[in-house]
C-alpha cells in the first residue's frame, strides 16, 4: 500500500491510497478537488472515502465524481443524506476493495454522529476523531462515545498502527498536552520535532497508536497523574474535563 499525504485547504489533509500492483487508488477526504486530482495524476482513482460530512472533508466529492465517471463515493449510512455524491453507504465492519487492497470501516461517532474511519494493513484513516496529540471536538456526541472510540475501538487496533488524521494541529496539541503533563519528556521532544517539521513546511503525520499513548492526553485519561492534575475520577470524567480545557486553550 502506498499512501501519499496531500495537504489541502488551510490545515487539512487528504490521502491518496494506492495499490501498486493494479495502479488503482482511493482518496480519503478530498475536499480540494484540483489539488487532489493533481496529486492523483497517473493513478486510476476508483473510490472516494469520506470520513464525515463536514465540508472541509466532503466538499470535493461532487466535483471529483463529475471529473472521474464511475467513481464510488463511500460514506456512513448514518449520514447518507449529508454526504455529497454518495454512492455507497457503509456501516461498521464493511469492507472496501481497492485493487488488491482491503480496507475496513469502523463506526466512530462523537465528532459527528456518523463519523467513520477506514483501516487497512497498518494504516488508520481517522478523520477528525484522533489527531497527533489530540482528538476532535464533540459536535454530535458525548464524552462516553468518544472514550469508547479512543480507548475501545482504536485501543483494539495493533499498537504499530499508523495514524493518518484529518488536520495539522500537532504543535498546538502538544503545547496543550504539556499544560496537563509538564514533565512529560516525550511530549516535549515531540513538540520540538513538530516545530522543526512545520518550519520546514513538512507534515507531522503519520504517528502511531503506540506513540500517541505516550503523550496524547486524550489517550491517557486512565493515568493517575493526569486525573490528579485535573482533580477528576474515572476516564470519562477526565476526558470531559480535558475537552473543556482544550476547547478554551
Give a verbal description of the structure.
The longest helix has 15 residues, at 185-199. The chain has a single domain, classed as 4-Layer Sandwich (Metallo-beta-lactamase, Chain A). Strands 1-2-3-4-5-6 form a six-stranded mixed sheet, covered by helices on one side. The chain has a six-stranded mixed sheet with strand order 7-8-9-10-13-14. It has helices at 33-39, 55-58, 61-67, 143-153, 170-180, 185-199, 209-215, 224-230, 235-247, and strands at residues 2-8, 12-19, 24-28, 44-49, 72-76, 88-90, 95-98, 101-107, 116-120, 123-127, 130-131, 134-135, 162-165, 207-208. The mean pLDDT is 97. Helices cover 33% and strands 26% of the residues. With 249 residues, it is of the alpha/beta class.
Give a quick account of the main beta sheet: strands, pairing sense, barrel closure.
6 strands, mixed
- Label the structural class: alpha/beta
Proper CATH architecture:
4-Layer Sandwich
Q: Whole-number average pLDDT?
A: 97
Rg: 18 Å
How much of the polypeptide forms β-strand, as a percent range?
Answer: 25-35%
Output the CATH homologous superfamily: Ribonuclease Z/Hydroxyacylglutathione hydrolase-like
CATH class (first level) name: Alpha Beta
Low-confidence stretches: none
Taking the alpha carbons of the first and last residues, their distance comes to 37 Å
Amino acid at each position: 500500500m502506498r499512501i501519499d499525504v496531500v495537504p489541502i485547504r488551510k490545515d487539512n489533509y487528504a490521502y491518496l491510497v494506492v495499490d501498486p500492483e493494479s495502479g488503482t487508488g482511493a482518496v480519503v477526504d478530498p475536499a480540494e478537488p484540483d489539488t487532489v486530482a493533481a496529486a492523483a495524476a497517473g493513478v486510476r482513482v476508483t473510490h472516494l472515502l469520506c470520513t464525515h460530512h463536514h465540508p472541509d472533508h466532503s466538499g470535493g466529492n461532487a466535483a471529483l465524481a463529475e471529473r472521474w465517471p464511475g467513481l464510488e463515493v463511500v460514506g456512513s449510512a448514518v449520514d447518507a443524506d449529508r454526504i455529497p455524491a454518495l454512492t455507497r453507504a457503509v456501516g461498521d465492519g464493511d469492507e472496501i476493495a481497492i485493487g488488491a487492497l482491503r480496507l475496513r470501516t469502523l463506526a466512530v461517532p462523537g465528532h459527528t454522529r456518523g463519523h467513520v474511519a477506514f483501516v487497512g494493513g497498518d494504516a488508520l484513516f481517522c478523520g477528525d476523531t484522533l489527531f497527533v496529540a489530540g482528538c476532535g471536538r464533540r459536535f454530535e456526541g458525548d464524552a462516553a462515545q468518544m472514550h469508547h472510540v479512543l480507548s475501545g475501538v482504536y485501543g483494539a487496533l495493533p499498537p504499530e498502527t499508523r495514524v493518518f488524521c484529518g488536520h495539522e494541529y500537532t504543535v498546538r496539541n502538544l503545547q496543550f498536552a504539556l499544560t496537563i503533563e509538564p514533565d512529560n519528556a516525550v511530549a516535549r521532544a515531540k513538540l520540538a520535532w513538530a516545530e522543526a517539521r512545520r518550519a520546514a513546511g513538512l507534515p507531522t503525520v503519520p504517528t502511531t497508536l503506540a506513540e500517541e499513548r505516550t503523550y496524547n492526553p486524550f489517550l491517557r485519561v486512565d493515568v493517575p497523574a493526569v486525573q490528579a492534575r485535573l482533580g477528576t475520577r474515572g476516564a470519562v470524567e477526565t476526558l470531559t474535563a480535558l475537552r473543556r480545557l482544550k476547547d478554551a486553550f
